[in-house]
Fold each of these.
Amino acid sequence: MSLAPLRVENVTLTFGGIRALDDVSFTVAPGTVHALIGPNGAGKSSCFNVISGVYRATSGRVLFGDTELTRLRAHKLAKIGVGRAFQNTALSTRSTVLDNVMLGRHVLTRGGFLTDGLRLTAREERRHLARAAEICAFLGIGDVLHVPVAALPYGAAKRVDIARALAVEPTLLLLDEPAAGMNAAETAEMAATIGDLRAALGISVLLVEHDMSLVMGIADRVTVLDFGKRIADGSPAEVRSDPDVIRAYLGAEEPA
Amino acid sequence: MSDVVAEKAAPPKIPSPARETGRGRWVRRLAWVALLLVLAALPLYLEAAWLKAGQYVMIGGVGAIGLTMLVGQAGQLSLAHAFFLLVGATGYTVLSGPADDERVFGLGLDPGLALVGAVLTAALLGLAFAPVAGRLRGIYLGVASLSLVFLGLYLGQSAEALTGGTSTGRTPAAFELFGFPFSNGGPEIELLGVPFRQAERTWYLFLVLTAVAFLLARGAVRGRVGRSWRAVRDNEAAATAMGVDVTRAKAGAFAVSSAYAGLAGVMTALWFDILKPDESEYGTYGINVSIAFLAMVIIGGLGSIPGALVGALIVHGLPQALALYSADLGLFGETGGSALTPALISSFVYGAAIVLVVLFEPGGLAAIGRRITSRGLSRKPPEEDPS
Amino acid sequence: MNTFLQLVVNGLGKGAVFALLALGFVVIFKATEVVNFAHGSLVLFGGYLVVVTRESLGWVGASLVGILSAALLALAVERLLLARARSADANSLALLTIGLDVIITEEVVRRLGVTLPFLGEAWDAQPIQIGGITLFRTHLVALAVSAVLITAFFLAFRYSDWGVAMRAQAENREAAALMGIRSSRVTATAWLVAGALAGVAVLFIATQDFSGAGLSRGTHSIALAAFPAAILGGLDSTAGAVVGGLVVGLAEALSAQYISFDFSKSAVFLVMLVVLALRPSGLFGTRESTRV
């Protein structure tokens, strides 16, 4: 399996007169954990949404290997190996864990109303169910496969969301604030899980994060945004000592 | 690449992905088979009038299954169901109608083919409405879909060459399959001393149609299509990120639901043995019918396929049963405008049932049923969504 | 030209009545986010009470009773049912009102039986001739009454404590609650006002001039046109409701004359579809309603 780099090239995004992103560029090297950080309102989420196709960049482009993501319709991303987890765990809460994770297999499977209705896909379905169960087990939610998501604690739901993104069999995983709303212990566990993921799967991970402890512990490279501009890009150690970064964060909050 | 995790991560203990324990599944399957056997044996014991009532319930069942997929699974509120019933009924009558009639237009197709054609026509019209539906949400969609019922009312009145007009209507061709008529004609059949005539034959036809409709829906809802519908219902952004084309999924749900309504429409025309468009927005294909179908799926539990059947049993079965009992027991003797009729009592019952379901059990009868069976049969959690 | 002018005035007269209904509809939606599918049955209920009390109280007294009872029924629906189902989301509650609508409508229609009484005896069937065109008195009175009521409503909405509280609540329910606004009182008042407007509307709808038919199931069908009116104006816009009502009234009157009477009911809905295709939240609407 060959991994492709994700290149964000000179992306600018304006809403009305406001520049949410101003000429932002960075590259997620294959097989690395890359963090995108910045104070509140720095444009992290906007950047994330441009990459995942929710927003359309005003100018600039995003390339995944040779594919220009900025030209694709948002639902095409999964097909080329981009998995996405959400900040607010956008799950079907009434459905079971397995049912949610199986949604991730959508692009890897075929079947319409008649083929599903006639159960022509049953054998394939079983194979994918087993794989989905395997992914759940890997994320430590293997014993709640048939539990509706609504009955799970928040931390577990967060894992279901990541399991669903992994069920796409991505080569690039986009994580939107994986530690949002978690306490210190849960955050540490999440950091370990992300580390495991990369080690086990060898995929690239781009994560937007607020929690600096998580970022500094697991990221190979960090890009810092402030007021829609890239103000730093480098290893965690470099970024931590960058005077611009310190200034930006002092205005908002202390880097941990 | 699908086994990357398996190779590198410590082999995890995977609980069986089976949905329920083996025993529970078998008990459940046996129960369905037993039900089917009982239904298949009923013509031996029931009078034609009761068979006719049962057929009416099956019409409701087919339509409600279609609607519950659209409203409950895909989250698209539709009040247009009655319109697609009209499309199915008209489609069948036109396609199978004699080609040499001076008053009305017909293509003279084989009735079996006409049935398929009518269902496809309804599906295509559902698809045609999808671009409008795709832009609207919730109540906006509900009221927008209501316009189709009004459009159907107008077209039914004005396109007399197709529908026969409101005053006389037109008779649909009797259904037949490979030359075997589902009417009183053809070969004389008798089983255990019971002659199998139109009522008995139509019973089996409807039973097969309902069973097929049910099995297809259940399979689809449990499979990939159903998952994409639920994803669209619950979170469009997440559905998109997982590769679901939201517009297509919604359009698909509309087409499928309309096809089911179309089939229910064909059955309606056969059941009444006449296609007669309505004179006002209340009638065989009016708002009241859209609401009755909505009542079935709410009472049965939004999104539940077996629930839709139970909802149909209540909403379509009650007026029929009351009418038959009243004949037996001499109820409803009073006539005139203010009389309590079976249809009226049924309306009260399902109106009240909707209110009670929303207030006390939003999951409908399906949720109650799941609670009971999960206690008795398996350890399946009670609130599971796909059915 | 004269025909056209006549149609426009009559269309506006009908539209003013639809505006009253649509306004009530929107007020309920703004206060509770519930779409009240039982609006048509409020209309029937108010009308029925007029019929019942007319003999003993006279038309004026009976009309007041009708308006009041439609308002009280709406209040009862809100207090006794919806307020107790707070756990259910707004869309489920909308479905609940469908159930209610079935019950109330069927019962009123049953009680009416074969009598289809006309209700607008103060203005019905007394056409006025002005400069060669015939105008229906019902439509003129409807226009005037609606103008007064709608103006009063907007003044109250803008300046009264209720109006301020109502707007605050529609903007942000939690913040309004924190500011000490009693949500239950605002909501109850909204239903009361909507019911009263429905009670007024029926006095114009069940007339020779408006529908040619007395109080019946048909009255309920006519009231249904308030849905497209409210939707095309934008469900959360009070001004939109008024504009939507007038558009619906005009569309119906003009299409009945120039296309066909049968088509006029569909025309109203087609106009709505066109508007929604261009603006999915209606002409003045600002937010889309959520999924079911």
Amino acid sequence: MLRFLTRRTVAAAVTLVIIAAVTFFLFFAMPSDPARLACGKVCPPETLAQARHNLGLDQPIFVQFLEWLAGVFVGRDYEGLGHCSAPCLGYSFVNRAPVFNTIIDRLPVTISLTIGSSVIYLIFGVGTGVIAALNQGKALDKIASVASLIGSSMQIYFVGTLAMYFLVFQWQLIERPRYVPFTENPLEWAYGLLLPWLVLAMISTANYTRMTRSTMVEQLSEDYVRTARAKGMSGRTVITRFALRGTLSPIATIFGVDLAVLIGGAIITETTFSLQGVGRLSIQSVVNSDLPMLMATVLLAAAAIVVFNIIVDALYAVIDPRVRLS
Amino acid sequence: MSTRRRPALAVLAIGTLALTAACAKGNAGGSADAGSSSAPRPSETNLTELFAPPKIEVGTADDSKGPAIEPEGVVKGSTVNMIDRDDYPHLDPGRVYDNVTANFHLLITRGLTGYKKVGDNHYKVVGDLATDAGQVSDGGKTWTFTLKDGVKWQDGSPITSADVKWSMERLFAPFITEGPPYIQQWLTEEDYKKSYKGPYDGKELGNIETPDDKTVVFKFNEPHADANYALAMTGYGIVPKAKDTKEKYDKTPVSSGPYIIAAHSLDKSMDLERNPNWDPATDPIRGAYPDKWHLEFGYQALAVTDRFVADTGDDQKTFSFYTHVAAERTQQVLQDKSLQDRIMRRPSPYGDYYYFNLDRVKDVKIRQAIAYAWPTKQIQTITGGPDTSVINTTILNPSVSGWEDYDVFGFKQHPEGDLDKAKELLAQSGDPTPTIVYGYNNTPTEQRVTVAIKNQMAKIGIKIVAKPMDTKTWYDATGKVENGLDMYWGGWGADWPTAATVFPVIFGPVRDGGYNQSHLKDPEVTAEIKRIEGLADVDEANKAWAALDKKIMETITPLVPGLNNVGLQLRGSKVGGAEIDPISWVVSPNTIFVKP
Amino acid sequence: MTPITPFLSVQDLHVSFQTEDGIVKAVDGLSFDVEKGTTLGIVGESGSGKSVTNLAILGLHDPERTDIGGQVRLEGQELLGADRTTMERLRGNRIAMIFQDPLTALSPFHTVGRQIGEVYRKHKGASKREARERAIEMLERVGIPNAKVRVDEYPHMFSGGMRQRVMIAMALVCDPDLLIADEPTTALDVTVQAQILDLLKDLQQQTGTAIILITHDLGVVAQTAHNVLVMYAGRAVERGTMREVLGSPRHPYTWGLLSSVPRLGTSVDVPLRPVRGTPPSLINPPPGCPFHPRCDYPELAGPELCRTQRPEISPDAGHGDACYLTLRQKTDLRTVAHAAQTTQTTQTAQTAQTTHIKDRA
């Protein structure tokens, strides 16, 4: 396990540096020039040169990248703005605020959205899947499969916008989504995010229902499940300890993917519900040609994918002892 | 400032002026895409009639006295809420160029001059910190301003002429690149940062003089009749010499306006409280009626619209500086009778043009034939119908001072195109069946607009070769001198409501990345522009600009004017004094109050 | 010979499944008894209803899809239709089962110790520690070396034979009265097979457990069973002691089964004679004797008898079969059938298994 983690962590670090480099160099292939954006509409040459210098864009791209990379590990000094301590992701091109602070400030929103919704969709998705599997072919099963079909064909921006329009504005059943830090007031935190959670969960539940149902059906016909019954294990034990256990691997797989793409999904979710998370930050950074912010959000998204991949792989070994980590 | 669509405006708000000056048509959808859902209605009203152009003139010393003229039914006190998508990129006024940030700065920043609302659709350029809108001498080269008594910083110290001079000088410092360049250029040279590096190393700029604590004298190299317009820009707002922290000032500005920033959570919210050292008696511009302002950011147009439509709780005391009604709600909002007293509409103050590339389409008869045949009406239908835009017939936007109406090509008389006249002109031209390469921004709406143009031109024998172009690189591609195109859309906005920042730019130097997109290089026009720029009298200059507008259109026809978008906003029912400002095209905070 | 209340008594058992194609009569009127300390071998081809019968005894069929009729009595207690808790209390406790493929029949997710121990905990109310100790003890008993270490290992870490020993340890952990072993050695190679069978025999001698051994391998039966039941198409076609059935089989199907077994000492160019044809459809079984389409002698019992009327096995105990041939015909034909296969070696040629039979006889 330790060897596995060490090896994968090193690989992950290398991956992230490569992604950082690719992002960095691709950025400069984009047609928009951040220096031009930091210069007024009427922009005389010397002003443009100064804008370029202020953003650190007047050096060779390669040097810029190395300085950025060094900043991540040892910090960096910025002319007029002072020292930016490690891990320094730079200052935003747009408002010259430290990128790292902004990310740290926004991350809890995105994470809260993810955690809350995933708890709901895991419980409902897996629960419905199990019930459907145990009632194979009966009305409950059919209802669950129709519901999951509908759910999976929904989109956040559609359901979310409808939910906002009716539940919040027209009928005023729930307040506008807002983010209150968990540490400040856990109840307010949950209440403020309840609507996005439910909408997100409604869409994702379907995946888990289908996955759980089909795997569960398979598992129920496994020999070892029959053995368990032949041993006199009670119905519930058979389902939870044996059959459900076998569905964990596929669920962990899709859950890992769902968590890994959290920032991609957050773009739409946070926009729909007017929440200020990392998703919004990432789309803003693209629109604004804000390289430091863009780097940070891309890296965060990449890190999420890499880390959750490692976690899921490690989890396989925990779930299924036949899996050997290598 | 130039922008065409609501999203473009939002982009503008995050301090990306260059991008928006170069904001491609139909960029990112916006109200333009609402067109698909709105078939033209038979009983349409032409909004041009509803929106007469604003009257903007220079005010007197009397006009410059405070307090501001109160809107009808004004109530003072309470907290007003403002919601928009984006926070302000800069709190240092010297780094502000865009209309949205400038509008916010009315709350905390004062300058030598500003725009005072004196009546419905009537504005005057007056002295803000200065006792009047400036005294001109030396044939328009020397401008003298005297500071009012009792104008103070938020800490109670008096605002002096040294502060004003300092505020101008610091704009030359390397860290300030974002603001407008005009005053700096007029004081020095075109590439103004070459001649002076700012006051921080102790060097002063000789041609701003401060004979005493109250007097500031600007000595320009050339006459500039509208320097008081230029100085009304937020970029020339004042910064205290004693408390200037250079780069860091952007995060911790000192207020000279009616409010102080009490709390600011970047990109999320801002709270303003009264500045006890602001005296309304010195301020002819700002009403500052609410006691407190609560600003929140991060709301998309749809969320903002739905909140205003629902109008519940605190949202009744809420408005938006710049967020327009979301495109998908436009028709609903316009048709809902219960919302009519809460909607605000205003045509944009920006120019919107279909440029000819004069290097390629050399025959004026062909250009004029296209102008006659132009499918204005069809385009209007596609882009959202007559509720969302008005027909422009001139190069200058009607909101520009001195604008005079004319309609050489009958855009209003024949909104569907005057095909007979067009055919007649084509017959006289060197090539009765020309081929025109038309570059368009590859968005769904623009695709449909292009088809309409293509079909229309086919009727008079002109073959349109439509070239789809990428939205992101739109301005880079069309901004090249050798762009390989005959016709393309472009936008431009004046920095202040005179033609002084229009004609010298859009018919100025032809270069890659420049703004002379028709590549007009007529010596006569250039000479006339130079002459008018040198005029010391603003009214005379304005008249001359209007005449030049018509002359260029009649004799050269370098462009076909595009439609002028009508901004549509909603507000909470308890917000009073809100309207879309005809100059800045956003809701000014100056007249806002909260109804009980 | 039959006691008044046999230990396990199956009477007129019917099991049928609803499928898309129709009703499958997997078991159609089966009766047999098993006594303590004895082993009943149930033989037959795949699909003859052997496994279905035993799952029915344990009540492991999905009640929604299965129709079960008849009686299954354990020491007089009716098991068919018994409530869930009663059955759960019986399973793994008084009646245990060993499945064919220990790799799939053991949970891959739990250690063998846990899988063995949980049965003990469930039925005997033992603590975790006790259960673990018991698991180690059981592993030792079934001959797994180093049981203290291996108790914490997972099934995939064991070899096939060891895995089957784990299965047996798990089945015997509560000292069951009845052990149902469904093809316990099919997945194993021959040497391991013999070890496992010996193990079962030893354990039976120690505990007096009754064993139902399901197999298609007559060799296995010969080695372990006291009584034999031959099943065909969901019915018993022959029944008797091991010596009776294997020594003097009466039913042509049993002959077929015997002659399809390779024998040691037989010349390799003598072909095996598998039972020709394929097992009958259980949805539309042939009229008359279900075996008649594959039988070589349907005419001998009369022109139409085998094709129209189903022969029943005699309800009495003892050696019995379901065939219309006379005992005389059966004896003669059996000799011929044997002779046909063993022309060169005559009756001296015996398989290892049949030697075994003689020895025991």
